[in-house]
Amino acid sequence: MPSSPPLSPRARFAAALDRRPLPGRVPHFELVFFLTMEAFGKVHPSHRNYSQWMQMTPADRDLHRRDMARIYVDTADRYEQDAILLHPNPDYADLDQRVDEEIRLIDAVRDLSGNRYFLLLHGDPTFGIPTGSDMERRSLQMAEAPHELDAEGATRVDYCIRRAEKLAAHGRLDGFALCSDYCFNTGPFWPVPLFGRLITRHLKRVIAAYRALGFYTIKHTDGNIMPILDHLVAANPHALHSLDPQGGVDLAQVVKLVGHQVALCGNVDCGLLQTGSDEQCAAAVRSTLAQGLKAPGYIFGTSNCIYTGMELKRYDLMLHIWRKEGIRP
User: Fold this and answer.
1) Residue 67 lies in a domain
2) Has residue 22 been placed in a domain?
3) What's the total number of domains in the chain?
4) Which residue segment(s) compose the domain that 98 sits in?
5) First CA to last CA across the chain, in angstroms?
6) What is the spatial distance between Cα 110 and Cα 95, in angstroms, rounded to a whole number?
7) Which residues share a beta bridge with 218?
8) Could you tell me the pTM of the whole model?
9) Residue 177 · residue 239 · CB < 8 Å
C-alpha cells in the first residue's frame, strides 16, 4: 500500500500540542528569531519604527506587511520552524484597530505560505513581573489592595476574550502564546499563597475561553517555575515554555512530574549558546533532546529565543544536532 503523505509542519506542531507522539523528527519552535539582519539582511519586524509607520500611506503599510510576512516565512523555511509567533507592528491600543492590523499580517503570511505553518499571536492578560518603575506600586497593591489587582486582572481577561472572538471569526489563526514572566531565577515574584488568586484563576479563565474558541495555548514564563508548576498545569494550557535551565528547571524532573498532562517546549540553555564553548552547547542540546523525547508531547527549542547578541553559528550548531538526533523511532 502507498505510504501516507508527510504531515505539514502545522499538523505536526498541533499533534505535539495534543501530546500525540509521531514518528520522525520532533517539531521545532522559537518565540522570536531576532537575527534577521545577519540571516537575511533585513530588520526584524518588531524593530520597525512606530512613528514612521504612522506617517505611511496605506500602500506603504501594505508593502511593509508583505515584507514582514516574507521575513517570518523565510525564517520558518530556512530553520525548519513548525510554528510562527507573529509580532504585529504597530500594536494599537484600540481593540478594533489592533485586531484589524493582526488580521492583515495573518493574511499576508497565509497568502505566502498557505496552511503550512502554525500561526500564533501573543495573548496573555495575566500580571508578569513588574518593571522597575512599577515595582513599588504593584508590591504595595499586592500587600494592601489585592482586590484592585484582582479586578484589573478580570478586566484584562475580558479584553483578551473579546479580541480572541474577533480573531476566531476571521478563522486563520491557530493559537496564542501567553508570555507573561512570573519568575526570577530564584522563584516567583508573586507569592505562592497569593498566586492562585491574582494569577491562576485569571489564567484558567482566559485559557478556557481560548480553548472554547478552538485555539491552542502555549504558556511561557522564564525563571524557576517549580514552586508554581502545579498552578501552571492546573490552568490547562496545551504546552509549557521555556522550562528555563538558568532558573534551575530540570527538564527530566518536569517530564516526570507533568509530561503526561501537558506538552513541553524548550529547554536548550540560550545563555550557554551565547557564552559557552561549542562542546558545552552540543552537550546541552543532546541533554535536552534525551529528556524531551521522553515526553509524549515535545517541541524542541531554546529556553527563551534566538536573541540579538547570540551568534548565528550557535543556532546552526543546535539545529544540526536536532536534525540528526531529535527523532522518535
Assistant:
1) yes
2) no
3) 1
4) 29-122
5) 21
6) 22
7) 177, 239
8) 0.97
9) no
Q: Where does the chain have alpha helices with state H?
A: 9-17, 36-40, 50-55, 58-79, 95-113, 135-144, 146-170, 192-195, 201-212, 229-234, 251-258, 270-275, 278-292, 312-325
Reference 202, options 127, 263, 129, 121; nearest CA is 127
- DSSP lists the bridge partners of residue 327 as 25
- Number of Cβ within 10 Å of residue 6's Cβ equals 9
The conformation of residue 45, written as its DSSP 8-state character, comes to G
| pLDDT one-digit tens code per residue, 196-205 | 999 999 999 9
CA dist., res. 305 & res. 36, Å (int): 13
SS3 298: strand
Q: Residue 84 pairs with which residues in a beta bridge? A: 119
Q: Do residues 153 and 202 lie in contact, with contact meaning Cβ atoms separated by under 8 Å?
A: yes
| pLDDT score for 51 | 81
SS3 content of the chain, % helix, strand, coil (to 5): 55, 15, 35
**Mean pLDDT in the chain?**
96
Q: What is the mean pLDDT of each run of 10 residues along the chain (329 residues)?
A: 79 97 93 97 88 90 95 98 94 93 97 98 98 93 94 98 98 98 97 95 98 98 98 98 97 98 97 96 98 97 96 98 95
Please state, as a whole number, how many other Cβ atoms lie within 10 Å of the Cβ of residue 288: 27
Q: Are 24 and 79 in contact (CB under 8 A)?
A: no
The Cβ of residue 308 has, within 10 Å, a number of other Cβ atoms equal to 13
With respect to residue 65, please indicate whether it lies within any of the assigned structural domains.
Answer: yes
Euclidean distance between CA atoms 84 and 77, whole angstroms:
11
Cell digits for 105? 499580517
At residue 1, the pLDDT reads: 54
Q: Would you say residue 61 lies in a domain?
A: yes
Q: Alpha-carbon distance 240 to 218, whole Å? A: 6
Cα–Cα separations (whole angstroms), residue 307 to 48, 100, 273: 16, 28, 10
